[in-house]
């Protein structure tokens, strides 16, 4: 590739990456924000724990419902169009949620936010597959999580402190405005693939003419009927789903009501967990690419993640910092699920990468959507003891994810679908 074309390629690929990262950070902010605002939201809507869980769960149901459609659209029409539509929808939802005064309207707002926030991650992974070398995919997935989780970090202790200065409604509305700006920039500067700018793929892969590709229905059917896709699905359900359910809402109430921390200290614990998660995800993806190891690394960290729930079944010593250590370890170990995106892509047709990732992602949000109101009902029914039951439930579901991990295929960073076809 000539030097000028290489410079243009690098500029275009990183422009697409960083602008989409902004939209992804916003989606992560919305996912975790209810944890820092749980007390304010419960007061604002006079909500029970079950209703609070439902307000948060609507977001995950909407994200879950959009995963496969997003993958289909990203693979057929391209990720750029759906990214712009997602930003507009999420912004509208933020404005509705910020102005809501009843549980019902709050659910509508959170649902719209979820529909829009469902888009950036699958679209970004599709863009990564189109713009970057396959040898960089797991590394880029880790980098994506690192910066995406900055949105989560901003919605922990920083959001809790900000809510003491200005109303949470102002913050959510402001994030809605930022989302619109991100959508406009993506519409102007992002393209679906190098060929749209007359540039070659970094791996030298020839673009597949649209007429030679099977219909999206057949592509989706091939992904869903591929037995090697489903262990990825259940790893996401068990490990990522429990991590989402806990950090997105119940971690702060657990620390405040069960452990006896202040709201500020509880938010700081969640910040530590997410920060450890973000940094570890970056290094895990890079290590996986360099070592050519997916399954082994996932199982090691998945086992640590499962064990990390055990100390939470009883009161922890906050004075000695035991609680911070447990949250840090859990944050690091929870990154095990991030390797399933690379595996899902590598056991399916490259032209169906978005659909494979969409199917896998559905499980994560499905688990969070089911677990959050279920945990709320346990707390409403059993009070303080309900917290213990909730942690036990999260540990059990994590065990399901670890068992599924044992059924994964080790791809060693290669697309074994293509190798089998050849």
Automatic annotation (TrEMBL):
Record's keyword terms, sorted: Lysosome, Membrane, Transmembrane, Transmembrane helix, Transport
GO cellular component: lysosomal membrane
Catalysed reactions listed for this entry: L-lysyl-L-alpha-amino acid(out) = L-lysyl-L-alpha-amino acid(in); L-arginyl-L-alpha-amino acid(out) = L-arginyl-L-alpha-amino acid(in); L-lysyl-glycine(out) = L-lysyl-glycine(in); L-histidyl-glycine(out) = L-histidyl-glycine(in)
Location of the Major facilitator superfamily (MFS) profile domain: 16-413
Membrane topology: Multi-pass membrane protein
Subcellular location: Lysosome membrane
Transmembrane segments: 12-32, 52-70, 82-102, 108-125, 137-154, 166-190, 231-254, 266-284, 296-312, 324-344, 356-375, 387-409
MF GO annotations: transmembrane transporter activity
Organism domain of life: Bacteria
Subunit details: Homodimer. Interacts with lysosomal protein GLMP (via lumenal domain); the interaction starts while both proteins are still in the endoplasmic reticulum and is required for stabilization of MFSD1 in lysosomes but has no direct effect on its targeting to lysosomes or transporter activity.
PANTHER family in UniProt: MAJOR FACILITATOR SUPERFAMILY DOMAIN-CONTAINING PROTEIN 1
Function: Lysosomal dipeptide uniporter that selectively exports lysine, arginine or histidine-containing dipeptides with a net positive charge from the lysosome lumen into the cytosol. Could play a role in a specific type of protein O-glycosylation indirectly regulating macrophages migration and tissue invasion. Also essential for liver homeostasis.
Family the UniProt entry places it in: Belongs to the major facilitator superfamily.
Protein name, UniProt field: Lysosomal dipeptide transporter MFSD1
Species in which this protein is naturally found: Paraburkholderia fynbosensis
